[in-house]
Amino acid sequence: MSRVIGIDLGTTNSCVAVVDNGQPVVIPNTGGYKTTPSMFALADDGKRLVGHLAKRQAITNASNTVYASKRLIGRRFESAEVRRASELCPYAITEGPNGDPRMLLGEKTFTCAEIAAIILREMKRVAQEYLGEAIREAVITVPAHFNDAQRQSTKDAGKIAGLEVLRIINEPTAAALAYGFGRKNAEETVLVYDLGGGTFDVSILEMGEGVLEVLATAGDTFLGGEDFDRLLVNHLIEQFEASEGIDLRAEPMALQRLKDAAEKAKCDLSGATQTEVNLPFIATGGDGPRHLSVIVTREILERLAADIVDRTMTTVGLCLSDAGLSPDQIDQVILVGGQSRMPLVQERVAEFFGKRPHKGVNPDEVVAIGAAIQAEALLDEDQNMLLLDVTPLSLGIGTYGGHSAKLIERNTTLPVRRAHVFTTTRDNQTAVKIRVLQGESDIAEENDLLGEFILSGIREARKGEPEVEVSFDIDTNGIVSVSARDLSTGREQSITVNATGTLSDDEIQRIIDENDLYEIQVKD
Ligand code: AMP
Questions:
Q1: Residue 497 has pLDDT above 70, yes or no
Q2: Domains contained in the chain, CATH given
Q3: Which residues in 137-181 belong to E strands, given as ranges?
Q4: pTM of the predicted protein model
Q5: Which of 22, 59, 268, 293 has the lowest tally of Cβ within 10 angstroms?
């Protein structure tokens, strides 16, 4: 029986783990690193580079090096998030034929699922090399707050990478699984605060004899370390503009250097109270080269980032109230994601709960370890481990007058199936259009449109008479499918909701068939 790996497909870094002789282990890449940058580049000579190789050449090849593409996955090109991701971004983001964002590298555009697939392939390769055997199956983690489109795209990426995705699990749930490993009999209520490179999640889980039950989850799929970096990049640009009168915003190479330097300064400031950013030859003025040299203190960074950290704490409050708990009912707070190393984050969390967070897990590795533990549990039926997760977003359909009728509330345990009966709004109406929405608003437009389908052949009758039963299923991966049935004719229609922006089966096959995807340079 071949092994199943657990992959944490992160915004900034990815990590792969496996359970070996009953123990979960993180697999190092050829360079000995336990995490691999989620970066991809097209070099001048046409070579495709991934991971550390892509990162190393990012400054000299900034416009052909993609980082943080997970921020774009499953989104529409026109969305506010894609617009924000394009700001101060050295590579070009263009609109694809499905209205999805694509990365333009050289002459070729790449879908987000393709880039994610390239990174997944690399993680698969790392595991194969270490284990000396072929790997075909994986459990992949996603932010808990990912919607249907983002989950579908991640699953598509697995397929493109030649992996059967046995399960998609939520990152904070994976972290709790790793925390709970070996504590089988402990009964605890834990809160996972997961602030990664691009996303923020908070989940509250109850652990007890072989059962891990998520009580509530909340989050923001566009809030993470990247935002801290961007604030610091902006600060450096403003300082430089004030002293030198030169705007660095339109210069890809300068932007990439600033981004690297800002991230490094941010990480340094988790240990030191002051650091210096030095970027020689960052620009050329009328009288020759100009150098950037700026002192950044922890106080400045904390002032810049205070709003973001406050936002995360508001989300923590929301999650607690959804779970019906108060802060003192949380036994353990687990910090996950590299950005949770920031002292300000740790202070705020400690103030809120009146106790220091748990220190025993490595925030960079714990999610992949949890994924590997789940992979093992799926293989080994004797393991009595019951994992009950929830849907992060309410599911509904568009109704008359632009409203959204909620059919499944957020934080409902998965899998779930709900059926509702709907009727027509006009006499002799023979077709209904079902618009499937995900989100919390009563106004249809403010929610994500997952997809729409038409149920035709309804018998002619007065408005309000025909009865159409619509059933919604959300599986354990958080992926939605919908079917509808005319109760008088029995006529049925079933769709897997193919969110706008995701790839069709044909497109996935086309990408798989493109041989060049298999020619990635994989040496580290
Ligand atoms: P992850 O998605 O968990 O790999 O988190 C990556 C994010 O954590 C990136 O934005 C990193 O810059 C950030 N990060 C890593 N180490 C630190 C640190 N020591 N202090 C602050 N942020 C960090």
A1: no
A2: 4-183+361-385 (3.30.420.40), 225-302 (3.90.640.10), 393-500 (2.60.34.10)
A3: 137-142, 164-170
A4: 0.93
A5: 22
